[in-house]
Amino acid sequence: MTDKELLNQRFKIIFQHLVEKGEVVKSSREKGMSSFAEKIMGNKSYGHIIRAYLKDSDARTITYQQAQRLVSHYSVNPTYMFEGKGTIFLSEEAAFSSNETSAGSPKSDDVLTKTNVPKHRTNIVFSSISAFASSTVDIGVHADSEHFYIPGMQGEHIAFYIKGESMIPTISDGDMVICRSLDSNERITENEIYAIVTSSGNVMVKRIQKIFNKHRQLQGIKCISDNYLEHDPFTLTINEVQKLLKVERKLTGIGL
Q1: Is residue 47 domain-shared with residue 146, that is, in the same domain?
Q2: Running DSSP on this structure, what letter comes out for residue 172?
């Protein structure tokens, strides 16, 4: 079963719990399928798509962005939603943390609540490629972009969808890559995958190798595609590289 199919299986479980908790009431105008679809998909007329997600026989599955909205609107535990671990709802997670505290009141960092999780546990900024390319500074400039959380990733990251097949079989068209800015003293690692923004505004994801001049000074990078049979390597000078981020993770099968 693919990651996307597993995500959809957890969505079905969460939806059933929401029905049992009275958060979704199919015959209700305020809490019915139209209201649910508007919160998750931004359009109350998409209730039929939600129903398709809930059918075992339908190939359609919930997207990563829709799952994030489900987490935000219904206090779903993001660790359960995206990894299948822990309790289903944050209120249950908070109660568990409180019970596990040995003495006195639990520390604020120990208890995950609806009010502090989205802000405290955000570590990914979702961006379009065009927005990513237009930023000449840090990830933090994307204040209006959608934010979400993936457990186990430290620090701020930026995510965007890949277009094209130059990195097959490692990264495919439609995959999402999650990248982080390089530290000021961090060295480029040979043959690792980076997101590159050029001075002309192009965005590409490639394996890179360093190119030095005769004085052993870095003068450029060689950009290599994993789909090397169809895409030849090429070089960029240092002046042509506007921004360089390390690709830390990819997510497959989560496109809209």
Answers
A1: no
A2: -
Q: Assign residue 189 the CATH number of its domain.
A: 2.10.109.10
Model-wide pTM > 0.85: no
Asked if 171 contacts 250 with a C-beta cutoff of 8 angstroms, the reply is yes
Residues paired with 178 in a beta bridge: 159, 249
Q: How many domains does the chain have?
A: 2
Q: Is residue 76 domain-resident?
A: yes
Contact present, 85 and 40 (Cβ < 8 Å): no
- Residue 254 identity (one-letter amino acid): I
Neighbouring C-beta atoms of residue 137, cutoff 10 Å: 8
Instruction: Return the amino acid letter for 101.
Output: T
Q: For residue 58, is pLDDT > 50?
A: yes
Alpha helices in 107-195 (DSSP H): 117-120, 129-134
**Main-chain phi, psi angles of 98, to 5 degrees:** -65, -40
Structural domain boundaries enclosing 86: 3-98
